[in-house]
Amino acid sequence: MKRLLCTILGLMAAVLAAPGALAAEFKVGLSLPTQREERWVKDKQVMEAEAKKAGIDLRVQVTDNDASKQVAQCENLISQGVKVLILAPHDASSAAVIIDKAAKAGIKVISYDRLVTNSALDYHYLSFDNVKVGELQGEFITKRQPKGSYIVLAGSPTDNNAKLFREGAMKYIKPLADKGDIKIVMDQFVKDWQPSEAQKLCEQALTANQNKVDAVLAPNDGTAGGCIQAMAAQGLAGKVPITGQDAELSGAIRIVQGTQSMTIFKDTRELGKRAVQMALELAQGKAIETHGQVVNNGKKDVPSVLLTPFIVTKDNLDEMLIKSGYLEREKVYKK
Ligand code: BGC
């Protein structure tokens, strides 16, 4: 009886110790593009907390939108002996070099939120359905404003997501432009997703069109904020529908105040959690369940896990962002 009890206790101890024991043995690298936007701050916080829970030694580097710095920082993480690298590339195609270097060192890579393009090597992609993000934006804005002059902004040309968002939105905008109902008065990428750059572009478009602009497709909340400043300077804030993305606090406040029309909620808590789980599974040599989903990177189909984005307007903001605990009520409805 005593022997049996000891065996059972021993087995229980082994089971309890197993995840921690493995986790404590390995380091994971995390390379992020920026901390200037709220969403990337949240991604970092979530992954740090999840890694801590799992007993993983997470080593974080932030590139500050500098592609060559990101390569150097990842080389450094590789030399620190990380087993898995979670990589959100600043520059999609130049980050392929990082995949090469990681592969040579036997390190698995998770392309996080943004796809690394032009690599023929094996890695996984974990993101949201980014074409769907653009579709939600495009559908919303064309329903709100089916005719008139449009400013169409896309994100950074170095970010594959910017192309996917645009592709999704243009499914709705282009047919109306082809019909002549919509006139696209500006169609530009925004360098490094900078709000100040978006503001400048919107100012230019407003000036060139004597303020006759009827809708703005802004790819995220940061660029929407820049455009809304340009609009406000002309007394147009709240009069012209404008999209966004990321459910940032500033975006949510503008939605409540009526100067921004919508945002897209991508639950970065879920994404960060999945990334850490995936890193653990890869380190354990487990196969990642992708249900056959792939995204093409220009050279191959990359096995992908894509989470669902949701549209947020004034009508469902409480339900989506506050009840879910993503944003705090007192901050969104501040006086
Ligand atoms: C992300 C967006 C973000 C943008 C700018 C994109 O890759 O998917 O959520 O707003 O980068 O950082």
Outline:
By secondary structure, the chain is α/β, with parallel strands linked by helices.
Tell me about the biggest sheet?
Answer: 7 strands, mixed
Radius of gyration, Cα only, in angstroms?
A: 22 Å
Range of helix content? 40-55%
Mean pLDDT: 94
Strand arrangement, largest sheet?
2-1-3-4-5-11-10
- Work out the helix count: 12
- Structural class of the secondary structure composition? alpha/beta
Order of helices and strands: HEHEHEHEEHEHEHEHHEHEEEHH
Q: How would you describe the shape?
A: globular
Number of strands: 12
The percent range for strand residues is: 15-25%
Listed once per kind, the bound small molecules are: beta-D-glucopyranose
Q: Would you write up a description of this structure?
A:
- The protein is of the alpha/beta class.
- Helix content is 48%, strand content 19%.
- It is built from twelve helices and twelve strands.
- The chain has helices spanning 2-25, 38-54, 67-79, 96-104, 130-144, 160-179, 195-208, 221-233, 249-257, 268-283, 317-322, 329-332; strands at 27-32, 57-62, 82-87, 108-112, 124-128, 148-154, 182-189, 215-217, 263-265, 294-296, 301-307, 310-312.
- The strands form three sheets. Strands 2-1-3-4-5-11-10 form a seven-stranded mixed beta sheet, with helices on both faces.
- Helix 4 (96-104) links the parallel strand 3 (82-87) and strand 4.
- The protein is globular, with a radius of gyration of 22 Å.
- It starts with a helix and ends with a helix.
- Mean pLDDT is 94; it is low at 10-21.
- Beta-D-glucopyranose is lined by residues 37, 39, 113-114, 155, 159, 161, 193, 220, 245-246.
- Beta-D-glucopyranose binds next to loops.
